[in-house]
Amino acid sequence: MIPSRPTSRVPRPGFSHNIPLLNIFAALKMALLPMAIITLFWKDQIGLSLAEILLLQSIFSLATLLMEFPSGYLSDRLGYRFALNLACLFGMTGWTTYTFAGSFSGVLAAEIQLGISYAFISGSDSALLYETLRHDGREEHYARYDGRMTAWAQIGEAGGAIGAGVLYAWFPLLPFFLQVGIWISALVVCRQLKEIPSRPRKIGSHLHEALRIALKAFIHSPGLRFTILFAALLGLASFYPVWLIQPYMQSLDVPLVWFGPIWALANLCVSFGSIISHRIQYHLGARGTCLLLLGLLVAGYSGLAFTHMLWGFAFYFLLTLMRGIQGPFLRLALQQQSARYERASILSLKSLVFRFGFVITGPLVGILADHSGLSLCFLALLISQCLLVTVVIRPFLGSTASLWGTRPLH
Predict the structure, then answer these.
(1) Is 241 left (phi over 0), alpha (psi -120 to 50) or beta?
(2) CA-CA-CA-CA dihedral for 284, 290, 296, 298, to nearest 10
(3) pLDDT value for 9
(4) Distance in angstroms (rounded) separating the CA atoms of residues 409 and 288
(5) DSSP state string for 28-70
(6) Of the candidate ranges 25-29, 35-39, 102-106, 286-290, the one whose mean pLDDT is the lowest
(7) Across residues 289-313, what is the average pLDDT?
(8) What global pTM score does this model have?
């Protein structure tokens, strides 16, 4: 719930430095220099079609999917700091592999390692942030700090994207070499994080404990179930255009030198959305926030589907704004419904559902874009995503009403 006044509790010293370190790590993990030109790299340097690119991303999602829940469970048991350090090592090896890739299989090997890396990050950084705030008696401010951490991440991605087009034009592999150095820096930062102490918890069987958490998330807790589903649907709605916007801009004859700044501006929109997310929730309430998210989805996809002018890519910014707003809003709902030893696991289950959805639908979206064109593809996504999100909003609000201080909808 959004607090009406600041807490009077005095933070306990020793762990609050985790917060700026997590912000720096968020910026580094998302300072992805190759991302602004990655689709062009796959098409022009490796020779992949859009269908192969979406298939590649589906395999990436599958690798992440298979590791999501195990990595979250290990993070809850072995420590969030341990998981983040391991993620940095996989990030370093994954981008190093990219520098040697010359075919679909080489790119696939790199993507699998990066998928494992992001699986270990998924949930661990957010859980460590929440536990740090809880230890300091400030957990009610989680949405605000989560929004700031997301903002740092998007500023990092925006900063990495600004000169990506120039670097790529100069030497296509240069962004990938620099990316390895960024992950080395991220490892240095993670080594300075401190684990939050907790009481030892005896577990008879790790398999049974993992099953208990999964059953709670998907069966026994409607609030968790519909929050996870709602987050996954909104995540997919903002994720498909990530892989389609570059060929879309290419079809509009957008100059290559614009690609980096446009990518940077898109990420700044995510950053802005995440910063104002808790304020939007405070002023509009949970229901108003959900309707705003749906409205941004409709406007963004409608613009991409029906606009064929040079500036048409600007509608993509509405989808990135939606992505920024929904992140802290729904992660707060998940954190409030989770206990200490299941926090990262449940956040990872949310990512697992998202990844599973993309594994199933990603290649189909790529095939549709290849054979029917991007405009028809965006139109199909507009109709399908709006219908699915609309269906989920009501049960989400009803099952989480106690979190927002409202009555369930009838």
Answers:
(1) alpha
(2) -140
(3) 43
(4) 13
(5) HHT--GGGGGHHHIIIIII---HHHHHHHHHHHHHHHHHHHHH
(6) 35-39
(7) 89
(8) 0.70
